[in-house]
Specification:
Belongs to the LysR transcriptional regulatory family. This protein is of the alpha/beta class. It is built from ten helices and twelve strands. Helix content is 41%, strand content 24%.
């Protein structure tokens, strides 16, 4: 068995296409296919369902893929540990983040590159459920997600900050700049909210339910830019955590008002509970413990 065969398998699983997988591995498609067949022969299992095209992984294939990723991740960790004996100056880090952690991940990315100059980052926006899955499958090294209800067994967490929700309105609206709103008052406004697929929407729904009101939701979206545009026009209001707002929200056109009785919504850094994390991931985890984030 060769490591390149494991790389081939991971590439096919990611691209779900033999030609694109071969291109990403910088080999010919026949060479990639032959490598995977050799792996199947050595392990005496069928890994890939195939006709002329990639049809998916078999049940055994998914198990082999998990071990392949773990093996390659461990190898990368070994290489980084060797480099750590001198000094960590680079490495690769895959981070998943919930959409509402937009400002936090930007701040952390800048800080991580400052302390590790040659660090390369792969950052993906995912739901809390998808983050947990990808961490388990070792597709991510670290993640930033909600943990106010705890996390699944097998994960470690490092609390980063508690979200602060605000009311967004156009600067041209007649709302007093310093007015603090109650949840029952917010339920009377025409609102643009993040869609129900996002965890912080569930938090807002619980707040309205506790206040005994049904919100007037006229627009739902998963894009901060749409919220900004809808609010800026002056006909609709929005509720969002400050940590989810890009810098252009602060550049004029939109006003932020405080909300009383803030919900408990904790954002944390998450990793698998294991001893063989890549050196760069461990170093980033340790450095994050020295930071103080607030939004």
């Amino acid at each position: 068995m060769f490591l390149r065969q494991l790389h081939y398998l991971v590439a096919v699983a990611e691209h779900r296409h033999f030609a694109r997988a071969a291109e990403s591995c910088r080999v010919s498609q026949p060479a990639l296919s032959a490598g995977i067949r050799q792996l199947e022969e050595e392990l005496k299992v069928t890994i890939i369902q195939r006709d002329r095209r990639f049809q998916g992984l078999t049940e055994e294939g998914w198990r082999v893929l998990k071990w392949a990723r773990q093996t390659l991740d461990s190898l990368d960790g070994l290489r980084q540990e060797a480099a750590l004996a001198q000094r960590i100056s680079g490495g690769h880090l895959a981070i998943g983040a919930v959409p509402s952690a937009l400002r936090a991940i930007s701040t952390l990315a800048d800080e991580y590159r400052r302390v590790i100059p040659d660090l390369t980052l792969e950052i993906v926006s995912l739901s809390t459920q998808e983050i947990a899955r990808r961490l388990k499958e070792r597709e991510l090294h670290l993640a930033i997600a909600y943990t106010e209800h705890g996390v699944q067994q097998g994960f470690e967490t490092l609390d980063l900050y508690r979200e602060t929700f605000v009311l967004l309105s156009a600067e041209s609206s007649n709302i007093a700049p310093e007015r603090c709103f109650q949840w029952h008052e917010l339920g009377l406004l025409p609102l643009c909210l993040f869609d129900r697929g996002m965890h912080n929407r569930h938090i807002l729904d619980r707040c309205f339910q506790a206040a005994g009101v049904t919100p007037r939701v006229v627009v739902e979206t998963n894009a901060p830019s749409i919220i900004h545009e809808e609010v800026r026009r002056g006909q609709i209001y929005a509720i969002a955590p400050v940590s989810a707002l890009p810098d252009y929200f602060m550049d004029g056109g939109v006003r932020l008002n405080p909300i009383a009785d803030q919900p408990c919504a904790t954002i944390s850094l998450i990793r698998l509970s294991q001893d063989n994390l890549p050196a760069v991931a461990s170093a980033i985890w340790d450095h994050t413990q020295t930071l103080n984030l607030s939004y």
